[in-house]
Amino acid sequence: MKINVLKFGGTSVGSIEKIQSIAKKLVNRKKQGENLVVVVSAMGKSTDELLNMAKLITPNPDKRELDMLLSTGEQVTIALLSMAINALGCKSISMTGSQVSIKTDSTHSKARINSIDKDNMLNYLSEDRIIVVAGFQGVTENGDITTLGRGGSDTTAVSLAAILNASCEIYTDVDGVYSIDPRKYPKAKKLESLDYDEMLEMASLGAGIIDVRAIEMAHKYKVPIFIGLNTMDVPGTIVKEYDDNMEKKAVTGMSINENILMVSVSDIPFDASNVARIFSKIASKNIIVDMISQTAPHNNQINISFTVEKDDLYDLEAVLIDLKDEMPSCDFSFNDELIKLSVVGVGMISQSGVASKLFDVFSENNIHFYQVTTSEISISYTVHSDDLDRAINVIAKVFKL
Amino acid sequence: MKINVLKFGGTSVGSIEKIQSIAKKLVNRKKQGENLVVVVSAMGKSTDELLNMAKLITPNPDKRELDMLLSTGEQVTIALLSMAINALGCKSISMTGSQVSIKTDSTHSKARINSIDKDNMLNYLSEDRIIVVAGFQGVTENGDITTLGRGGSDTTAVSLAAILNASCEIYTDVDGVYSIDPRKYPKAKKLESLDYDEMLEMASLGAGIIDVRAIEMAHKYKVPIFIGLNTMDVPGTIVKEYDDNMEKKAVTGMSINENILMVSVSDIPFDASNVARIFSKIASKNIIVDMISQTAPHNNQINISFTVEKDDLYDLEAVLIDLKDEMPSCDFSFNDELIKLSVVGVGMISQSGVASKLFDVFSENNIHFYQVTTSEISISYTVHSDDLDRAINVIAKVFKL
């Protein structure tokens, strides 16, 4: 059975009218004989509204209960979309993560999928129903509701596509992947296709169109992903395995991540166990660390900086208070005024000179960067937010993005 | 293990502040050593808001999907209340109907409970947790979410009390059961206690404080119910089995039901099969019929009137359109301007003259009634809404309510 998994994000289902409009398009595709599994997010800002209610009760709500709360957002959308499809005379059925049996570990708020049972879905598809699945949520072996973290609906969609051997279409409020976020650089070009690794760098480094875990999973299970506008009527971007038909530019695009917090720890006694202690404590809170840079030892002391997501501030502070007790000579500081710029291109593997060209650009334009890290297909910088626009413009010009 | 089941309705949990205030009182009782299972409704008007969204999509939404939608209301409350309890340093856990394993039949929107698994709850209680259960919802054998109908949270609370061999406390925004709804008749008296049958008549006939199915169940399983104000600091009313200490008045109270629609079917050919056909069609839609009255045959034709809840209008219209096809000679009409008044008292069984006194009162005051029905402990009338206030006043005066 050929199956298509489609995913609509919160903006795409942000009102009753939008839900009805999507229902119509789904019914049309169903009438063409397609077997559809549709994954949806919570409507508009409803996840934020639920989160705000929780925060009124306590700044650090119990995570199991927070998942119980947040999972209602998607449940509302699946019920409404399924009603709308039914009302158009087409059979439909909504399913929560628990009903699909999307089994996860018990890391509440950032759970990982362990298994998915496809039998229920295949039964419903064989009854000619459109299946509407709540994104972002799963269930533990004990029956506790979990959520997969921000962007988790993408992960749900790709996981379902993988288990159902289906293609995956991610519909959103942008019409594809651009070389640079068009809100930051209106002259950016839409990319026809890019490979998983590039998309991974673009997404994890902040393009914000599709969740990084979803791309990793798509890569692993070779699920091609179409990213397109939720009106479903304009060409989008395909993310797939690298092939020779893809453009051979050194630099494909640049991503911008404003949701970073740089943490600096200075005067750490030069001993590998100290650094290990810092990062293991942070890891124990499931905080993802990015852009680690370390200075060479001076007076037998080193400085380390790294970035985390701004959302992790609360959990991180608890860790740092602990560490300060254990390492009283160290000094801890935050900087939340930095932006991460990443220049990405699978062509960098074979073409040299990208890094050198970039350092020239920063120097010529007197743009100060705080950190620099590199991967095989990307180079990332943290710059002050005041320098952001200038940096984007000069880089876009040099690499014709 | 001695367990108390407490239930808080939508008004009682209508804001974050109210939820926090209930959490404090629960934590205090837990500290006194009580084992608490708390059943909550959706916050304030949230069920109506969800229902309105559904109605924007279609006037008659698919009932499975409507249950999927509405059940999120209670899920939000349990998560928030459990967070609030946790934030006060007391262990708590929220459970959906599905997690408690409240198994129901598959009559969506009006499901009946078949079984409840108490093991999970007993385990959590033995871990010293306050359990917060979503009222109004259950799950079918297939894992579909069901709801128990309006007032279903009361049914949840009493069912849990029955299975846990617990007492049941229903907290609401009125401080007990009055002889007449105090909003309609401010001089009404608060009743200290009444028996299940009286409460059943008062509730089913419209007192609106506690759901009729919950009282039936409490009666069946001999669960004493305390009904009190959600501030938990004033005396309320106890509903229990009749005993000799209860006051021996002929009339305990009067209930008023404004949510009725009188349906009249005239010129029905005088043949029992026709009447049976009408009511079996209505029953097949799970519409509850009340106050059936039938005229004696005239010209070999009869007229029948009966009342239903106003909410059932949509389903009922579909039935009547069918019937009109089958019985073209009959005429169908509605009247939504009537109110049902019921005079209730377990003492009526042994004391005669209540009916006679009432007919006198209606006659002397020139109040026209449309229908009259009687049970062992009650007499009910439908009167025009314009006559309501006068009727309440004269009846209250005659029976000193």
The assembly state of the depicted protein chains is homodimer
Largest sheet of chain A: 8 strands, mixed
General form of chain A: globular
User: What fold name stands as the CATH topology of one domain in chain A?
Assistant: Carbamate kinase
What fraction strand of chain A? 25-35%
Overall pLDDT confidence of chain A:
91
Q: Kindly state the percentage of residues in helix of chain A.
A: 25-40%
Just give the CATH class of one domain in chain A: Alpha Beta
Overall structural class of chain A, as computed from helix and strand content, comes to alpha/beta
Compute the CA-based radius of gyration of chain A.
Answer: 22 Å
Question: In whole angstroms, how far apart are the ends of chain A?
Answer: 41 Å
Largest interface: A-B, 37 and 37 residues
- Strand arrangement in the largest pleated sheet of chain A: 3-6-2-1-9-11-12-10
Q: What would you give as the CATH superfamily of one domain in chain A?
A: Acetylglutamate kinase-like
The overall strand count of chain A is: 20
**Second-tier CATH architecture of one domain in chain A:** 3-Layer(aba) Sandwich
Give the low-pLDDT segments of chain A: none
Number of helices of chain A: 12
